[in-house]
């Protein structure tokens, strides 16, 4: 069973791999799984300005170099003529202006340009760049549909970004003073043989490059070439290179000698079977997810802080890990054990989905209370889990939090065709079974078939009402493609874990079906039933933060068991009939009877205070139904809402700010503005809700 903090896994063929932030908190259940270290390298690199003092820049606050000044003069003839200039200077300026105008005009008016290509806007930006007089200002030519660039670019240009166009090549001659070049998300198949010698940053991800020039500028410090088609790198990379990002290519090896000053190395999503035996001594971040690595170098750099090697073929880890290591991510490998000695600075240890049968004896004493250890989806023996549970939940425990998962109980002999899996639930219904044969090739069908087989292995299968509910799901999904696709999507991942995760996933499918039923009009003439179903969803939503708080109070926890425990054990008390009636591993949830009683009381209080507002303003299915059964009243409500936001909102906000002595405070405007918009929506939508219910003899 997965813990709530599911990190995405990547196959070796994927081209994109995630990056993580330096800090983590315990992830929340029911959020889209996401890697906290999501980092856009290209954006960060392009945001850097050229180093001051390089090239031909002046020291007067970043004003134009002589070459750039001449470019501006040539375009606009702004140079003042005088005795020192003379006729020769005037004539030269006119000639330059004429020549540059001709180049840009010819390029902008070329009849061969593609439909939607906005070269006129590009020319406007080029001219505007010259007018700024700031050599450090970048020339931004993104999102213009450009298929080519002008033959001549401003000679004083130091930063150029032509990303997100349709370029198939760059000019053979780029401005000699160029320091940063961004050309990601184009169709480039090659780079100029000779790049500007002073180039410091080259960001060209998501193109079609099959190779790089043999010789790159010596001063290059950042090279980002992710998501291309590179099969190899130059044997010699620039000696000053600090950041190298080659994720999502076709590399089978790296140069034996990488630049000694390299600090970031991102090689995920390639076909690497090994890394160089000796990595640069200053390396701080290594990302090698989604390759075919069977081992890591025995001696990793002492300065390494972040190590990502998920979804490889690792059988073991180095006996000694870098002392400064803060994050170690090795999920999706073949590890049977972890290093006996772990760095004291470690903040996150993620080793999900391996073959771990034990954990280091010193795990709980080496790592601090701020560290989170993820070992779910491993075959940890019951005795190991029991011993850990006792140690971590003991009074005064001050070690790391450990996230695990219960195993067993859902094994199936082999994957079966979708129709066969469905047939076990629809016995005696040959027509319905035959209909499911048509869906076998739809995205997610194999995962859903496996999910159905594992659902049979859960503790709920012996319940006749549960089996009938599953059968009805299948009948409905057979005739409603959108609902079927929701079921298929929800089954992804859940089928790889234990039976309580299967049960929790089925509960989620019931929520999805309820919303689909509402959208399809099943409750348009059954408002009383609709309100009762809305109460069920309100209660389930209210249980989520309660379960999250319980998870955060535990040091050794399977989060799935905690969330499911609150749902299952309060099913009858809170009338949550749409969810499954039982679970397998309640005893490891550590949810007590006192916890359940407190949760029931809290949910009831929240419902009494907030259900009306939830129904009127936050539950979209209600508004969908109202728009169909009372279209005129709904339309009038929308008009009143727009008028109130235009007319009442400003005056209310002004008064609220004045009442709190915060007039002119922008942060207070945002805070109180959100409050007032919510108040206006409650007033107007609440009135419509009461009107619709009253017209039908109903009340909350």
Describe the protein's topology.
Layout: H1 41-46, H2 66-76, H3 86-108, H4 119-132, E1 139-140, E2 159-161, E3 180-182, E4 201-203, E5 222-224, E6 243-245, E7 264-266, E8 285-287, E9 306-308, E10 327-329, E11 348-350, H5 363-366, E12 372-374, H6 382-392, E13 401-403, H7 418-423, H8 430-436, H9 445-455, H10 464-479, H11 481-491, H12 499-519, H13 527-553, E14 556-557, H14 559-569, H15 593-618, H16 620-629, H17 631-659, H18 666-695
Parallel strand pairs: 1-2, 2-3, 3-4, 4-5, 5-6, 6-7, 7-8, 8-9, 9-10, 10-11, 11-12, 12-13, 13-14
Helix pairs in contact: 2-3, 3-4, 9-11, 10-11, 11-12, 12-14, 13-14, 13-15, 15-18, 16-17, 17-18
Structure description:
With 700 residues, this protein is mainly α. The protein is built from 18 helices and 14 strands. Among the domains are: 103 residues, no CATH class; 91 residues, Shigella T3SS effector IpaH defines (Methane Monooxygenase Hydroxylase, Chain G, domain 1); 66 residues, Methane Monooxygenase Hydroxylase, Chain G, domain 1. Helices cover 39% and strands 6% of the residues. It has a 14-stranded parallel sheet with strand order 1-2-3-4-5-6-7-8-9-10-11-12-13-14. Strand 12, helix 6 and strand 13 form a beta-alpha-beta unit. The chain is globular, with a radius of gyration of 31 Å.
